Amino acid sequence: MKQELAEDPREAPQPGREARPARADGVAPDAAWRALLDGASAPYRAAGRFAWHFARGKLGRDPVFRALLERGELAGRARVLDIGCGQGLLASLLQACAEAAAQGRWPAAWGEAPGARQYTGIELMTRDVARAQAATAGLALAPRFVCADMRQAELPDCDLVVILDVLHYVDHAAQAALLARVRSALGRRGRLLLRVGDMDDARGFAASQWVDRLVTTVRGHRVPPTWGRSVAQWRELLQGLGFAVQALPMSRGTPFANVLLLADATAIDGDRA
Ligand SMILES: C[S@@+](CC[C@H](N)C(=O)[O-])C[C@H]1O[C@@H](n2cnc3c(N)ncnc32)[C@H](O)[C@@H]1O
Q1: pTM
Q2: Nearest-CA residue for atom 19 of ligand 1
């Protein structure tokens, strides 16, 4: 009987899938989210006032973070790679989620809690990496940050790649080359979560470009040009690389035209087992 179970593909261990964390029926989602926001922001006090205010503002106002948790999109993926990670907010959020789930504070109404065991962030800006390291140094997740240009950085083997609002900083050829390397790093059951602006939505895309320029100027960086695509063009690129793609609008409460692409690797030649 045991033999039969082991041979059932539904019973076979999935890469990165660990025992499911406990969920508590009595936990109200809004209260759970507020606690996660507090928990994920708190480590940034160690990185200074700006880092803490930025963490609270970004995690609290950007709809993508709560949506990923509510939908269970980070579940069952042990090795996470966050490209263009900024000050590493996702690492801190993953840590707060692990603690909430372990303590039975995960709302039953949400999808399964994230299962991250390993986190690598790649970020170009040294100041962001310094803030990320200062904030997250004591976390049990022990996130690793690499200060590098994603176009050249080595990508570790992983189960989940997250790229939020980053790819438009590099040209179309560099976007395609990076996504091909992401596909190889993921192997056959991996998943990419890619948030992009939809260039077909002219008004929303212009709003995000305007904010990008303002933020890069305020942060004292050279203002780079940006390279967009329509959602249809992103989808075509990803499908050509061996991903099955779903698109979700992801700019609720903002003036932007952001879309989250859930891209699941489909088997291709040369995949790792
Ligand atoms: C809009 S921020 C998004 C940060 C983070 N993903 C988030 O959602 O909070 C874009 C980030 O991409 C980084 N970035 C831009 N070009 C990059 C490159 N070539 N390599 C690595 N990081 C890059 C920027 O420095 C910035 O931190």
Answers
A1: 0.88
A2: 149
